[in-house]
Amino acid sequence: MPIPEATTRTSALLSGPVDFIEAPPPDMIPRLKSGGFQVTSNRYPHFWPYFMSFREGSPWLDIRVRKAVNLAIDRDAIVKLLGGYAIPAKGIVEPGNPWFGKPTFEVKYDPATARNLLAEAGYSTQKPLTLKVLAAPSGSGQMVPRRMNEYIQQNLKSVGINLELITVDWEQVRNCRRAGAGSPVCQGAQGINNSHTTIDPHTAFARVYSCDSVPPAGFNFGYYCDKTVEAMIHKALNTFDERLRDQILANLHSYIVDQAVDVWVVHDVAPRAMSAKVKGFVQVKNWYQDFTPVYVEN
Fold it and tell me: CB neighbours (10 Å) of residue 217?
C-alpha cells in the first residue's frame, strides 16, 4: 500500500490497516514503542548527500567552497533531530567500512574554518555565496528531508551562505538527476538532494563519479570528471582479488573526500515499525531485506 507521507503512514500502522511500515517519523517512534509496536534499525549502505554541479560557472568548482559547506553542517544536531536514527557522515561510506581509507580532510562541524575558507574564496556578507538545491519533501530513502534541509539552511546561513531550496516532488528530483546539472528540468539548481546507496563498488563510485557516467549514460549529475578518480574506478572494477580491490576503493574514497566532492550529511539506519503480530523479521546491514521468514500472527 503506497503511503508517501510519513505521518499518514504511521497513523495507518497505529489504527490497524497496515502491520509494517518503512521510515516512521522520528518524533512518533516513542509513541509507537510505548504502544507495543516493534521498531528496528541497523547500519545501512545508504547515505544522504547533496550532489553538486561541476559545470562551468558553478561555485562548487572551488575546493574552498566545497570544504566550507561540509564544515558548516552540524551533523550531530541532525542526528538528534532524527531521534538518533542516523549516523553522522564523514564521506560516502562510514569509518570502519573497508572502503573508508584514510582521508586527510575531516568532515566535521567547524563553522569558524568554514567562514575563513569562504572569505579566502571571495565571499562575505556584502558578497554572499548563494547555492540552489533541488529537494523533495519526501521520497524513497529520503528520511525526513524537509526538516533536515531546513536545518542545513540555517547552518549555512550562519556562515554566510544562502541556501535556496527549490522544492519539487520526488520524481522531479530523479528526472533532474537523470538529465544532469544545467538541464531545464533542474530549474537552475546547482545541486540535488538525492539519497544514494553504496551496496557495491559500481553503485557507490562508478555510477556517480565516473566520467563515463555523465548523463544520459549514468547518474553523474554534476558532470564530475577527474582522471585520478577514473583510473582508480577502472582498476577497482577490473580487480577480482577482494582485499586488493578494497584497498583501491579505500584510496579512491580518501581522494574523493579530500577533494570534498559532495556534501555528505548522514548515513541512514532505516528505521522500520511493525505491529507486535509481525514475527520473523531480522533487519540486516543491507539495502535488500529477506522477508521469507516473516509472518503475521492471527
Answer: 11
Specify if 17 maps to a domain.
yes
pLDDT band at 101 (very low <50, low <70, confident <90, very high): very high
At 298 the pLDDT is 83
Q: Are 276 and 20 in contact (CB under 8 A)?
A: no
Are 58 and 189 spatial neighbours (Cβ–Cβ below 8 Å)? no
Are 220 and 210 in contact, with CB atoms under 8 Å apart? yes
In a domain, 1, yes or no: no
What pLDDT score does 4 carry? 81
289, 250: one domain: no
Pair 17, 131 in one domain: no
Cα(162)–Cα(154) distance, integer angstroms: 9
CATH of the domain at 166: 3.10.105.10
Number of domains in the chain: 2
Handedness of CA 99, 101, 105, 109 (dihedral sign): positive
- The x, y and z cell numbers of residue 14, run together, are 497505529
- Number of residues that this document lists for the chain: 298
3-class DSSP state for residue 191? strand
Q: How far apart are CA 179 and CA 187, in angstroms?
A: 12
Q: Is the domain of 286 the same as that of 173?
A: no
Across the range 140-158, mean pLDDT stands at 92
Task: Give residue 21's domain range.
Answer: 6-42+271-296
How much is the CA Rg of the chain, to the nearest whole Å? 20
DSSP 203: I
pLDDT of residue 5: 84
Judgement on whether residues 184 and 90 belong to the same structural domain of the protein: yes
Let me know if residue 139 belongs to a domain.
yes
Q: Kindly state the cell numbers that stand for 169.
A: 516532488
Residues forming a β-bridge with 266: 48, 88
pTM of the model: 0.93
Local confidence band at 142 (pLDDT 50, 70, 90 cut-offs) = confident
